[in-house]
Amino acid sequence: MKSYLQEPEARRLPAAREAFINRKHYYGQFLHGYYQFDCVVDKDTVRSAKFYIPEGSIYNQPTVFVGVPGGTNPWSFMVESGWKALSDQYGLYLVLMEARDEKGWRNDQADMDYLDALNNDLALRPMFCSFQANFYCAAYGDAADAAGRHSRKSPRAYAAIALLGTTGMSREEQEALETEYTRTEGVTYSQVQWPVWLCRAADTENALREIDYYRRANHSQAEETADGSRRIWLPKEGGTIDEHWCAKVIADCAPWTDCVNRCYSEAILTELFDGIYRYPGTNNGALRRAGNIYDRGFQKFSADVWGGYYADRRDMYRREWYVYVPESAPKDQKIPAVFVFHGAGGSGDEIADRIGWSHAADVHGFMLIMPTASEPNEVRAISDMETNNIFRAMWNTGYPQPERPEDMRFIDFLYDWLLSRYPADPSRIYASGQSSGGMMSWACAAYRPDYFAAAAPFSARHIDIEAAERGEAQRPPVEESLVPIMANLGCCDSAFKGGFTQARELVDYWCGRYGLTKKWADYSYMDNGTSCSYKEGLITHYVFETPEGVPLLHLTETDTKAHATWPSECMLVWEKYFTKFSKDPETKVLYYEGQPVKG
User: Fold this and answer.
1) For residue 79, what are the CA distances in angstroms to 56, 265, 278, 375?
2) pLDDT tens figures, 31-45
């Protein structure tokens, strides 16, 4: 393909120390424009990629990895293919993957290593805030086979992929994928769903084998629909609330050069990529169709909130949060509410779908309030690069700093705002979250017990990981009111290896504070249910009760689960735990199944 457009000079990424806090646009993207990224593959190899970040973009927007054909100018291809215009229109981030030299893509191990390193680096937010759950790939020409081979052995790399110019799949690769196991026990690579768009020049044996491979992986129906030269297979009905069967197979027979235009790229974006996410779940990720949150009724709010550091209140931050009141919520009575806190690098607009609280809210008719955390302006060295934690919003439970607002003060603001704005039931307000948000859930029980009737921390075994790591003094817990806690860790969580085996101090604190009949040492953990209260399917339960039998601390471990929360676990927490507890908003007395709990 001839490239005739003048490529502007790709700017170097700024140094991480140059990032700055803008209190008036607290969650605005720091960069915009066209940038050079040097991807360190190994100590001897650095390969080039380009970033395009549209002006006015915000955090955690979809990221499209564009495989640029060998010998093609990346800027020109981005423009000719229409991806730049789509990026500007929809706020997408673009990552332009480049061949190593003028000979193009080889589809060899060196290419696999580059694609793997680049995908991993983008998941770590290299000076802008990308989010792996909504990574997508569109690869063209000789890049298509390399991207296809890489993705099939990297289940969490993308949520969906378009291979435009694919030559298909060899029998040797197919047999290997059908016999080799992924990092998820008992699951082969060929069993991982892949929403896929294939464009091949002819129906060769390898091309048809590739189509059949994806149809089997995606639980495709036998029936197909046709759209001109395209054939479309939809998935059968099935799946679970934790992983949907939602992967299309779209196959087009045409020269790949016919795909290099905005109309074709927009079809890929809207018909394949849009609304599909590969959330953390197992080590392969969990494919789910979420759809547009605003179409479903989510509302975004923002306000200037005092950070708490300067007495004259000059440190006002433009904070944001999201509220969801499902159609199933009662119309003529107070509505229960769950505060849902995102993990490090997340945001309020993604967390409810990612961990499944939105599904539970739809089923049971309670409302959600989902705030976005504060941002520490500090350099972070990781994976042979430096970035800044401005792009990794996370919760803090410490006191305010000159450039870091106090998040507990933000919770005070939101609690008052919620009760003044919505018919929320003050006796049934709960807290839950994932990772950093799980720590915030522990903190809500420790530092704001009067607000919450119960808490459910996921993927967290500290009240404040930042304070735990830095040795900073934490604020003393407030012990005026009981807050029952149901906490969960995944048995395959690489962030918290060993699960509750490493949480003795935390567990014994709550057991002592509440006068529970068991302590941490009364159970053994991570032992497949050998010493526990009971086991249900993949979940092992450890229950700590008051002398009257009230389970004020309930720990669970989930087999096969990584650093994540599953929608089925949110349903479990709501149905088996939160619904049993309420708290009188005046007296702060806790009730369990309608009866007051002795404090």
Assistant:
1) 19, 11, 28, 34
2) 899 999 999 999 999
